[in-house]
Amino acid sequence: MAGMIGAMFATDALLPSGWARDVLIEWDDAGMITRVSPGAQPGTGVKASGPVLPGIANVHSHAFQRAMAGLAEFRGHPTDDFWTWREEMYRVASLLAPEDVEAIARHLYIELLLHGYTGVAEFHYIHNDAQGRPYADRVEMAHRIAAAAGSAGISLTLIPVLYAHGGFGNRGLSARQKRFASDPAAILGMVRDLASFHLPNPLLRFGVAPHSVRAVDALLLTELVDGATGLDSSMPIHMHVSEQTGEVEECLATHGATPLAWTMEIVKVDARWCFIHATHLTQIERRALGATGACVGLCPVTEANLGDGIFEFGPWFEGRHPWSIGGDSHVSVSPFEELRALEYSQRLRQRLRNIVADEQHPDVAANLWLGAAAGGGQAMAQPTGAIEVGRRADLVVLDGSDTDFESLRAPSALGVALFSGNHNRVSDVFVGGRAVVEAGRHAQQDEARGAFREALRRLRAS
Prior knowledge:
Elements: E1 3-4, E2 7-15, E3 18-27, E4 33-37, E5 46-47, E6 52-54, E7 56-61, H1 82-95, H2 98-114, E8 117-124, H3 140-152, E9 155-162, H4 184-198, E10 204-206, E11 209-210, H5 218-231, E12 237-241, H6 245-255, H7 259-266, E13 273-277, H8 283-290, E14 295-298, H9 300-305, H10 313-318, E15 323-325, H11 335-350, H12 364-380, E16 395-398, H13 410-419, E17 426-431, E18 434-437, H14 445-461
Parallel strand pairs: 2-5, 7-8, 8-9, 9-10, 9-11, 12-13, 13-14, 14-15
Antiparallel strand pairs: 1-18, 2-3, 3-4, 6-16, 16-17, 17-18
Helix pairs in contact: 2-3, 2-14, 4-5
């Protein structure tokens, strides 16, 4: 399957309308789907080895945190929570050199591809050197992220983050936050510099992110959003919101409003926006946000790991509002695990089974995958998220020879992949019509793993 193919025949493919049989998927030299034909003959297209799914995006990544995944699991405080975990994250961030960031990101992005992600939105906030000084090239670190994605073959929406304050009330940045320091002019300048250097590139898009309500003020938020709109009226805007109850309480004490209410009062929120976590929105806030067309970016495994809480997903799903998934701290690199955690968290919350379903759409696994894929395309602002004409040929092929799939039709096979066992059941992955994973392997995985190991050795020696 090496390189650009142009057509694929799938005995089973998950289309926007649901599962279809004998589907011929064709795309052009730009990797854009030109025809989807159910009930077709194989023709000259390569035959997929198992059920074919639309590619799915990881919409919230802090790539460098892959280097500390699983290393904050020793109790360090009687009320260990996100805020104590954050100190360990700051320590790791303070050690990173540009070559470390590239090595970690490249290895991570290959891991994401191997497990079925086809795109990643990098919420990028390490802008400065270890002393908090801008690099000679202010986008040095962002170039490293773009290089890692390009080498891995994953699509990337690179989102430089505005991080101006160390807390509510315009609190100054701590010494460990100086690497993140930025202002709207710097962030917008970064986007311009990156675009002029890297574009056009069909697998690359740029956005902006006000980090959170605690890291910006009203003037900075307005300046960033207005500037981004001036650069590109369709530019994606991502933002952490209401992740922690402590954040909500402090925002209420400082501004007399919740983080989302404060944000929506200051700037216009629309479908360009992706609010990350949104864990502690009220019912009124969920309805108001749903009316804007904005997406929520849920990170169920990280949210569980950090003890954030559980987003009330049932009403959001019932309203058919956009949503997506992210790996955040990368304690998981699998969309299957993230979707499983999302469904299971709702089951625990409601003490019921099969939550992400209704009478018209009873297939939980298909609902999870299709919803996350579609929302991921919106959050990435890239033409992905469905197997349909006009979308990019980002495709995930399950391993039809997997023992657990024996004698199963595709809907049940996806259910098994999502809810049974722990091994990876992805066989092949295509990004823009090009095979980047074949028979469960990426051509650069061994080399990237070696560079990652060297980066870990340097960091852990420190």
